[in-house]
Each structure stands twice: as C-alpha cells, then as structure tokens.
C-alpha cells in the first residue's frame, strides 16, 4: 500500500470517526477495514494493521473514563480471564483462516445486534438505577465475554456490540460504565491479537500508525461526550450506530 498525503488524510479522518463510534458503541472498524482494503491491503493485513489503532484507542478511552471515575476497577481482573482466553483463540483462528470466513461472521453479529436493539432493547440497555452484577455471580457473563473475546480476536469489527451485550445486557451496567469496561476488554484481547499478528509479520506499520492518530483523537473526544451526555441520548445514539453498523457490514 502506497502512503500519500491524500491517503494519510483519509485514514486520519476515518480513524477519528471510527474512534468515536467504537468508544460510544461499536462498529467503527466497518469503516476502517474496507478503507484499508480499498487502498490496496489484503484482508488479513488490513485486519491485523487495524488492531494497532484499536489498541491505542482503547487505551486512550479507558484512561479517560478512569480519570472521570467511570471505570469499575474491581471488575477488570475477573473480566480479563474469559476475554483473554477467547481473544487468543480468535486471533489464532483469524491468522490462519481464509478471507471468506470474516465477512459472514461480521454480518451475522451486526444483524443480530441490530434486531435485538430494535426488538428487545432492554436486553442491552438496563433500566436506570439497576444494580450491576459481579462476574463471579453470573456464569452467563463469563460465556458472553469469552465469545466476545474470540470474535474480537478473530475479526474485531462490531465486537463492541457483543461486549455491550455481556457488560450491559448481562451484568447490567449503565452505558457509560459499560463502555468503559468494554474498552478495557477490547484492550486486552487486542493486545493478544497484536502479538499473534506481529509474530506472523501481518502488520503494515506506517498506515497502521497514521490511522492510529485518528483513533486516539476520536476516543478522546467521545469520552468527554459520554461523561456529559444524558443516558437517553446515549441509548438513542447506540441504536443509531447499531443500525448504521449493520448497513456498513452488509454493503462494505
């Protein structure tokens, strides 16, 4: 892939938009992955290179939520075990799988989440005032986090919705704290995936780092928005992003 001023500008702009979408909901990689492939990257290289920005965006967002006391630190370690195990399995599967497997998984996840958001929103968005559960008290959350980790390690795009289903839908966290924990989980399995992809020399570093600039800016801006936004605004925004993500998965 040839990196020019024009392509760098496009990557940064898409990275900002994707960073905002990923931090507040999920599905931002539905923009960046097709862009990397249109610019000449094979699907496996694009999938691996995209993870550099995802890692830095997740780190930026998690630190931002922690700064504003919206990150439940006590639950991080219990969430890491299933997430990391799933992420390692998914990354190994992605590294050795043919390209045609990636898109059906992505589309299936996005369509499913869109239908749930429209038909059964309470499964993802708990009522205000709901007391969150502990991972240790909810075997279903362990399974959900392991599945999210596998999917995130495998393809990444749209994994935010699956994580929100586990963190908000099963453990009943509000969207702000749920997004904070979602970013920590994403950070964990993305790090594992990156180790696998780097070991197999599948990361195109220059475009990956350029894209990362946008991801970091987007994450920083969206944390500030999430802290100040009303819960109802976040709910509507999540629904819109879910539906848009579904269309992006179908047509790109």
From TrEMBL:
<comment type="similarity">
    <text>Belongs to the 4-toluene sulfonate uptake permease (TSUP) (TC 2.A.102) family.</text>
</comment>
<dbReference type="InterPro" id="IPR052017">
    <property type="entry name" value="TSUP"/>
</dbReference>
<feature type="transmembrane region" description="Helical">
    <location>
        <begin position="205"/>
        <end position="227"/>
    </location>
</feature>
<feature type="transmembrane region" description="Helical">
    <location>
        <begin position="76"/>
        <end position="94"/>
    </location>
</feature>
<feature type="transmembrane region" description="Helical">
    <location>
        <begin position="106"/>
        <end position="125"/>
    </location>
</feature>
<feature type="transmembrane region" description="Helical">
    <location>
        <begin position="180"/>
        <end position="199"/>
    </location>
</feature>
<keyword id="KW-0813">Transport</keyword>
<dbReference type="InterPro" id="IPR002781">
    <property type="entry name" value="TM_pro_TauE-like"/>
</dbReference>
<keyword id="KW-0812">Transmembrane</keyword>
<keyword id="KW-0472">Membrane</keyword>
<protein>
    <recommendedName>
        <fullName>Probable membrane transporter protein</fullName>
    </recommendedName>
</protein>
<keyword id="KW-1133">Transmembrane helix</keyword>
<dbReference type="Pfam" id="PF01925">
    <property type="entry name" value="TauE"/>
</dbReference>
<keyword id="KW-1003">Cell membrane</keyword>
<feature type="transmembrane region" description="Helical">
    <location>
        <begin position="145"/>
        <end position="168"/>
    </location>
</feature>
<dbReference type="GO" id="GO:0005886">
    <property type="term" value="C:plasma membrane"/>
</dbReference>
<feature type="transmembrane region" description="Helical">
    <location>
        <begin position="234"/>
        <end position="251"/>
    </location>
</feature>
């Amino acid at each position: 892939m040839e990196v020019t001023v024009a392509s760098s500008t496009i990557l940064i702009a898409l990275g900002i938009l994707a960073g905002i979408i990923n931090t507040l909901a999920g599905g931002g990689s539905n923009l960046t992955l097709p862009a990397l492939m249109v610019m000449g990257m094979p699907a496996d290289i694009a999938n691996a290179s995209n993870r550099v920005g995802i890692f830095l965006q997740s780190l930026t967002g998690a630190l931002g939520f922690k700064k504003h006391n919206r990150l439940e630190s006590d639950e991080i370690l219990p969430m890491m075990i299933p997430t990391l195990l799933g992420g390692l399995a998914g990354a190994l599967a992605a590294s050795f799988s043919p390209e045609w497997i990636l898109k059906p998984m992505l589309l299936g996840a996005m369509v499913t989440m869109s239908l749930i958001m429209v038909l059964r929103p309470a499964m993802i968005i708990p009522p205000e005032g709901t007391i969150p559960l502990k991972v240790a008290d909810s075997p279903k959350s362990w399974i959900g986090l392991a599945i999210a980790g596998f999917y995130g390690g495998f393809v990444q795009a749209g994994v935010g919705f699956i994580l929100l289903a586990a963190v908000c839908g099963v453990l009943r966290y509000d969207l702000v704290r749920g997004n904070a924990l979602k970013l920590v989980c994403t950070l964990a399995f993305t790090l594992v995936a990156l180790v696998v992809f780097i070991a197999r020399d599948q990361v195109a570093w220059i475009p990956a780092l350029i894209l990362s600039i946008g991801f970091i800016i987007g994450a920083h801006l969206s944390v500030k928005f999430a802290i100040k936004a009303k819960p109802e605004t976040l709910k509507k925004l999540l629904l819109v992003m879910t539906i848009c993500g579904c269309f992006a998965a179908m047509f790109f």
